[in-house]
Every structure is written in structure tokens, then in C-alpha cells.
Amino acid sequence: MFYRPSDGHGLPHNPFNAIVSPRPIGWISTRGADGHDNLAPYSFFNAVAYVPPQVMFASTSAKEDRGDTKDSVAQIRETGVFCVNIVAYEMRDVMNDSSGPWEREVDEFEHAGIEKAQCSEIDCARVAKAPANLECRLTQIVELPGQSNFVVFGEVVGVHMRDDCLVDGIFDVLTFNPLSRMGYRDYTVVRDKFSLKRPGD
């Protein structure tokens, strides 16, 4: 099968994000200028540079009470900071609960019963029991073609790692089993790993 996205695919559901999978989930916490906390998962997320360490996430829809975007991007525009919280398999249900189209006044930490902690380098909340948290300062927001498509880039200025996730000096993902997004309503979990030596190493 071949299709041009501009012509449509003719399938019951869009296959695009099932093709580009699995994708890590950036569980983004923000705090607005008014002090209100927000927490929402984004599966268009990844690390993009080592030095300095940088990450990105993309928001691709809007809410009526936020104009051209959603709560996360709106609050980052106000304050210039955000935190990426890594999602463990055991957190799948509360992560999913935080993804709802809640009103801007709703604190998803409280709504989903998620314990929060204060970030160290930025004025933002973080998921206290997440395997890791990346505290970020905004570097740029890029508007992409299409409606309400924004990519947020940030420099990581602080890193929290749960002590039980460190094994012999390695941040071992098998201690918490990262959750990843696939297509449609599907997710997967990392339970196995293997190593490959690159040529020249």
C-alpha cells in the first residue's frame, strides 16, 4: 500500500504514529505565571543533543481556553521552564488520567493523585516518584506547518534519578520498565535490552 498524506489513507484509523513507534513519553510538568501546576504526557518527545543536554516535545492540538495551543505550551510561554518526568510502567494509569482535556484550572497532580516535589533549578513541580526528572529551561518554541503544531526545545539544567534505578553506576531502565507509545490506543513497555558495539569503538 502507498498513500499520499494529502490525499488520505482510506483506512479506519491514521497509521502514521503506528509506523513511527515506539516513542518515548515525555510527561511534561509546568507551572504558570499564576503558580498553577499542570502535568500532561506527550509522545512526540525525545532527547536531541548531548552538550549541553537538550530535549524536545511537540504539542499538536489546542484547547478552547488556551487559544492556539494547550496548557503545557501556554505555561512555558509564560515562565520559560518545564520538567520532563520519565514514565515507569507502574505509572501507566495515572499518566493516562493526566492526559484528559481538563480545564486550565485543574491540577493534574491532584486530579490523578500524583505526589509532587519541587524542582531544584527551576520554579516548577515534578513527579516525586518518577524514575528520573529533567529540569529544563526553554531555548525556543518552533511553530510547524499545520494548525496548533508547536515544538518546544529546552536545555536540561538539572537531573534527578531515583537511587534504586542506579545499578553499578548505570541508570538501568529495567529497574522501572519505561512506558512507550505506539499507534492508536496502544502502548508498550521495555522489559529486555541488548548491546551492540559500533564499528570503530
Would you mind describing this structure in some detail?
There is one protein chain. This protein has 201 residues and is mainly β. It has one domain: Electron Transport, Fmn-binding Protein, Chain A (Pnp Oxidase, Chain A, Roll). It has helices at 16-19, 71-79, 92-97, 108-112, and strands at 23-24, 26-31, 37-42, 45-49, 54-59, 81-86, 116-118, 125-127, 132-143, 150-161, 166-167, 170-171, 179-181, 187-189. The strands form four sheets. The chain has a seven-stranded antiparallel sheet with strand order 3-2-6-9-10-5-4, covered by helices on one side. It has a three-stranded antiparallel sheet with strand order 1-13-14, with no helix packed on it. A hairpin with a 6-residue loop joins strand 7 (116-118) and strand 8 (125-127). The protein is globular, with a radius of gyration of 17 Å.
Features:
single chain; 3-stranded antiparallel beta sheet; 4 helices; 201 residues; 12% helix
In short:
InterPro entries: Flavin_Rdtase-like_dom, Split_barrel_FMN-bd. This protein has 201 residues and is mostly beta strands.
Average pLDDT for all residues:
96
**CATH architecture group name:** Roll
Roughly what percent helix?
10-25%
Q: What structural category characterises the helix and strand content?
A: mainly beta
Pfam family, one: Flavin_Reduct
Domain Flavin reductase like: 20-173
GO molecular function: FMN binding; oxidoreductase activity, acting on the CH-NH group of donors, NAD or NADP as acceptor
InterPro entries: Flavin_Rdtase-like_dom, Split_barrel_FMN-bd
